[in-house]
Every structure is written in structure tokens, then in C-alpha cells.
């Protein structure tokens, strides 16, 4: 059900087949096959069964786009399957992606799909995401296109940080990732990296308010589960708390690399949002937006757009998700600074567009308040290819 879940997550809908399509599928598919969306032709299918089913589905008037899924099947080689998919797309002229859940498709299959302009993915969710992006792109094309504006940012600072990571052979950024957001004008939680408990105490006193203490380690990424997060510490408590954390972590994970302790101001509760980006082989840099915290499971939706975004495109992306009304304020909940959210999305879209070596980025959470936004945590994955 990975593909069906992804359809909902990316803001699409499973098509309801016409009665004619359902009847025709039932006429030739085995009784155990599923004739409703998503169709299952079963693992013993011959090429003609797959071809007939795909032809009926892609030509259904209620279907706008199709994901063709298959695992290795003994009776349908991937080369044959690729030709079936390519022919169906050519006849129907509808967007189509494929997810062939196999390590190697083979040269023939890959060449067939490439010539037909059909994106191929191992992961069904990525195949669905590609269609969601294509759908959004088509919607944007219907409107008057506005060129992204030139932002005042510190590109040289980002170049410096990425160059250092490359020299060190790293593909993940540590706490310095927050400096990238600052360079692109995105507010971050005040704080600093401490190498010793004493430094942690000094940073906390400089902040002058309750702080959060977080372990910084490339090997221990789930900080909360390993006891690497302490909340609500007063400045005078931080040095002792930092010493206790270091001792506790060292006893449990004696060989783990510890880069230090991050001391950040404890922020008040806000609306948790997620802003991220990925680099897609077909579409290039994509920016993602959605709700974080408890709303991740309730709303189960994120939206994607091709970077870089103009201010209007960033606003459209933010407004496109279910639950957008929560940002404006609803049922006694105070609204947040939507303009600040939109600008943060816009700036992150420019960041990933400007630096191709950033292949994945995840601001989680971005806390939104009535007066603005603050990025609390950032994960950045790099590629030097």
C-alpha cells in the first residue's frame, strides 16, 4: 500500500474507475485479482493480461495520470513490460511513471523507458511524488509565470561551509548547518556549539534564558532516544547538566564520535512546520512544505514544487496543503505570520537551487508564531558527484 499512502500524502486522489472499466477488468482478470484502484493483475500474469489492464486503466475518463507498479514477475521480463508501458503512454498521452521494484531493470528496459520519456523509480512513493510535482507544475503553467526575485543572501558563507565539508570528506553537515539558514536570511534559535561543559554554561549565561541542551554526534542521530536532549535548563544548571550528559553518553556509547553539545534558547510552543528539499533526477531541486508535530499523522500531506520559487509560487505552495486554515487561525487557535512562512519557503527554495551539492535538506521543525518563524533543527545531506 506504499503507493496508495503516497497518493494521499502528496495531495492527489485515487481515481474511481468508470463502471465500464470495472466491468471490462472483471471480464478477463482472475477472481482473485483486484479490479478496483489500485488494480492487481496477480503475479502469474502473462504480458497480455498486464497490457489489457493497463490499457483500460490509462484510457479511463476518470484517470488523469498513472503509476505502473511491478515486482519481478516470472512471466513478464522487464524488457517486455517496458515496451507495454511505453506503448500505453503513447496511445493515451497521459502522464505516467513506473516503479519496477528490482535492483536492475536491464539495458533494454531502461533504454525503452528513456526514449518514451517515462521516469522510472524503485520506490513507489517516489513515482507518485513525481506525478504530484508534474501535476503542480502543470497547474502553475496555467497561470502567469513570475520570475523568482533576487534575494539578498550570503552565498560566500555557504560556499565556505560546503567547501570545508568537502575537504573533510563529509556528506552530512553538523551543527554548522544552522549557519546556512542564517546566511539565507532564515531566523534560527539563538545558541551555539560547546566543546566542553564549561563552554556550554557560558553560552547559556550569554543567552540569559532557559535553554535546551542537545548532543551533537554524526553517529547518534536519534538524540532523544539516547538521552541526548535536556529541556528547560536554567543557565546556572547547564554546566552540570552537560557534564552529566557527556558521562552518560560515554558510558553507553564509548566509541561514538561526539562533536560537542548544542545549547539553544528554549522556545515557546508554536505551530510546527516542515520545510525541506530533495534533488530529483527528473525534475531537479524540489522544495517541500507541510505540517509537523502531531499534524503529520493527522493530515498526512506535504506539497512539492520545483525550485526556485517566486514569492507568489511560494505562497501558492503554502496555501495548497490541507489544513492551511490552521495557519490563518481557526477554532480559537491564533494564526501565525503566514508571510514569514512563505518567505522561509522561498528562501529555502533558492538555497537548494543555488547549491546543487545539497541533495537533501530538512528543516524540522520550523516553528511559526504570530510574529514570525524560527528554524529549530536542520539536516543537510551533500553529494560531491
Brief sketch in words of this structure:
With 385 residues, the chain is α+β, with helices and mostly antiparallel strands. The chain is built from 14 helices and 13 strands.
How is this structure best described in words?
The protein has 14 helices and 13 strands. With 385 residues, it is an alpha+beta fold. It folds into 3 domains: 2-141, Rossmann fold (3-Layer(aba) Sandwich), CATH 3.40.50; 190-265, 2-Layer Sandwich (Dna Ligase, domain 1), CATH 3.30.1490.20; 271-382, D-amino Acid Aminotransferase, Chain A, domain 1 (2-Layer Sandwich). The strands form 3 sheets. Strands 8, 9, 10, 11, 12 and 13 form a 6-stranded antiparallel beta sheet that branches. Strands 4-7-5-6 form a 4-stranded antiparallel beta sheet, covered by helices on one side. A hairpin with a 2-residue loop joins strand 11 and strand 12 (372-375). The mean pLDDT is 89.
Question: Keywords for this structure?
Answer:
single chain; 385 residues; Dna Ligase, domain 1; D-amino Acid Aminotransferase, Chain A, domain 1; 4-stranded antiparallel beta sheet; 13 strands; elongated
